[in-house]
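Appendix C. Worked example: Ring-hydroxylating dioxygenase ferredoxin reductase family protein
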Amino acid sequence: MSFHIALNFEDGVTRFIDANAGETVADAAYRQGVNIPLDCRDGACGTCKCFAEAGRYDMGDNFIEDALTEEEAEQGYVLTCQMRAESDCVVRVPASSDVCKTQQASYEAAISNVRQLSASTIALSIKGESLSKLAFLPGQYVNLQVPGSSETRAYSFSSLPKDGEVSFLIRNVPGGLMSSFLTNLAKAGDAMTLAGPLGSFYLRDIKRPLLLLAGGTGLAPFTAMLEKIAAQGSEHPLHLIYGVTNDFDLVEMDKLADFAARIPNFTWSACVANPESAYPQKGYVTQHIEPKHLNDGNVDVYLCGPPPMVEAVSQYIREQGIQPANFYYEKFAASAA
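Step 2, the predicted output written as structure tokens:
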């Protein structure tokens, strides 16, 4: 038996390794070419101290207080030279991928489908044999190379991998390099290169209610997260608010309705900022956050949207005098040519 371990480095690179039953995470990483910093391998120096964000594991008792205190262990800190996984785990490594002698993985694939969902949004799916080896945490992104150029653009996965295929929601930016390619030139079979996965915005273990806030194509990482939640279930309530500027920016509404049917504790709403909108709910996301969604601070907030939205939501939460248990966010800005 083996377990998948996601190692998240401080420079945003994520590397997945397999750890055999009874094998320490440090040994498993070293066996697969990832050198987590360590000096002693005996639980005495603390050099390999990391933070376990998800999963079950056994630390044993073969380490000393100077290397890892009881309080640190209770918070989730681990010594990877002693940590033995008992399930799939996510481990945050306080070092760069370069220091650990690993790097972004690169994959070759081809366009399987490209669709114009609206005037502002493009759905892109790519497929390839190499993608059968691709692993990422729901919410992470990848750098896609624009065909015919050396430029790359960062996009969050909007789906989990299935049969070597992944999908993205891409904002159609007038004059944008990727947008121009996808709207004018792209066709099924065109080769694409991607590198990653990257990012610290991803779904953690669900330990309390979640409030998910999406702005525009910032919806993408949440549909990937909801796929994972639909598969594993959740005993905690989840609420998503999806905000856009204009009516034509609203996409994937049927997909959200489907998630609501599949996930018993999941509810969602959408809103349009344009006051002339025909959509029933108008205004900004902050105008549709209710006190119950913040749950007196016992809530994990996930937010993905343009910088002004991130700042507005942060300010709104501060004004409510509430400190969420966790507040994870991803800012994005569109790139023109």
